[in-house]
Amino acid sequence: MPRGSLPAPDKHMRMILVGPPGAGKGTQAARLVKTYGIPHISTGDMLRAAVKAGTQLGRQADEFMKSGQLVPDAVVIGMVIERISQDDCQEGFMLDGFPRTRPQAEALATALDEAQLSLDSVVLIEVADELIEDRIVKRRSDPETGEIYHLDHRPPPPEVIDRVVQRKDDTAEACRARLSKYHSETAPIVPFYEAAGLLKRVDGVGAPDDVELRIKAALA
Ligand code: AP5
Questions:
Q1: pLDDT for residue 52
Q2: Which residue from 53, 94, 139, 165 puts its CA 20 to 30 A from 66's CA?
Q3: pTM for the whole thing?
């Protein structure tokens, strides 16, 4: 299929994971894609890859990300629309971290409408603000496997402990900025999806296994 055109309207499970920073979107996406067999499209991961590769997009995004600000809509929208037009998204996709502004939600809706496609579900993982900072500052990830750890709840095993890294935006200060952006920019998309009858609220507090079961029940 040519880049820029969306897949034919044949199959399903086009879904979005929404939630505050540290809600567990990445942790749950890694589990869910194994069940649903659809690609996990994380705009945060895509942008971090661009920063690491030193591309023009990465240089543009880096300053916004480090300080916990959002990367401009025009940059992110083009990146996602291009990504979901690729062949591996024919049978669906799981968006993680997109949309996170009202213009992004509207751009996605327009692109899907034009391709005569629709979303199946939007899962909102809910975690109270006071639990977020601990999750963020104690997160570590394995650059080789992408595995996500937490220093207390899910400590990196001895064989990977020397190579785990901390994200540049996982400081207490950037976390507060991200949370503030979540409330001002991203939370307003929740009513948009609620009005469309797509929203499923899931409690994100508890063991990751339990959260996974709640999400699967909500999607069933
Ligand atoms: P992004 O990478 O999307 O970050 P985020 O939304 O802030 O989410 P996180 O990755 O921090 O958290 P998560 O919900 O995935 O939690 P995780 O599973 O890792 O975006 C980063 C930046 O990129 C943005 O700030 C922005 O600058 C830019 N950006 C990205 N998309 C953009 C867009 N669409 N528009 C504009 N800018 C964009 O878990 C967190 C921790 O909690 C881990 O340590 C984990 O082990 C632990 N944990 C997970 N589940 C549980 C549980 N149930 N109990 C206890 N601990 C848990």
A1: 93
A2: 94
A3: 0.92
